[in-house]
Design goal:
Blueprint (H helix, E strand, L loop, with lengths): L7 E4 L6 H11 L10 H7 L4 H6 L1 E6 L2 E8 L4 E6 L7 H13 L7 E3 L4 H9 L3 E12 L10 E4 L5 H11 L7 H9 L6 E8 L2 E9 L6 E9 L8 H15 L4 E7 L3 H9 L3 E2 L3 E5 L3
Helix pairs in contact: 4-5
Bound molecules: coenzyme A.
The site of coenzyme A has 21 residues, from strand 10, helix 8 and helix 9.
Amino acid sequence: MLNVSMTLVCATPPVDGFGEVVAALARFQRDGLPVQLHPGDLGWYTRCGADAAAAATRTWSRDGQILAVGLLDGPGVLRLAVSPDAFDDDDVATGILRDIAGSTSFRAEVVEARGGPRLRRALIEGGWVPDEAWTPLRRDLAGPVEKSDLRLEVTNVDRADVRVALQRASFDRSTFTREGWRAMAEGPAYARARCLVGYDGEVAVAAVTVWSAGAGRPGLLEPMGVHREHRGRGYGAAICRGAAAALREMGASSATVCTPSDNVGAVATYASAGFVPLAPVRDFRRAV
Ligand SMILES: CC(C)(COP(=O)(O)OP(=O)(O)OC[C@H]1O[C@@H](n2cnc3c(N)ncnc32)[C@H](O)[C@@H]1OP(=O)(O)O)[C@@H](O)C(=O)NCCC(=O)NCCS
């Protein structure tokens, strides 16, 4: 008789199995559900290298089916997504909680768990306390997107330097490099992504990377920024409109993004580009 195991298994994917994790995570993305960890988040992390991205990833599977994915996105920070089919699954929620409480290989101090109401309940019952608030925003892509005021260039390997320079000019602590861009672009998630650089005349002023999760699913903007010397002129809203249009062209049903609620400039910029803010959602922090 076939012995079917129903045990939830936590694993780190092999580098050559990372594409399967990206594909599973893409299937978790559905409109109308909480904006949770997206293939684009794994894709953006791949700038650190394919080995590092696989090593920072965890999967929870039952009978070979991936039901949850985690990304160790910085020291002690675990970002989670749960399959909508397992949102109410007690074993998945308690299994994840047991692993993050007891694991020596990835002790999480902060957990992002926007999807999976059962998991959020398990965290609260387990004594985890609310932490930083994040604001998800969403723009429906059923209708056309108004034209961006910027000239948009899709980054290719020969123009990666421009994309990298804008990242560094937009984010104070950015360590993005040309090698990082190449590693990201060679990763499985980037097969459904593109970087856009926005130009005013000949001057590169803003950049964004957009990630599709496949046709009919929500896409993600991650990251988006405007050169610090060119802010306050509408370029942020313009590059976000360009990002939404690109995602629509790629078949996405909506464009989503999530930003710390205290990044009021970012929230205002997305809203100005037609993104609708959803209710803020807090991370969880280990109480002791
Ligand atoms: C957030 C950021 C993209 C804004 O770019 P920008 O080109 O200055 O934004 P825009 O000129 O297009 O402004 C769009 C709207 O946001 C508002 N806004 C922009 N920055 C703001 C701020 N710091 N505080 C309040 N409102 C702000 C503008 O007033 C404008 O509102 P309006 O459409 O009602 O007139 C830019 O500051 C940036 O790159 N920051 C660092 C990177 C970052 O935080 N990225 C987002 C992470 S998810």
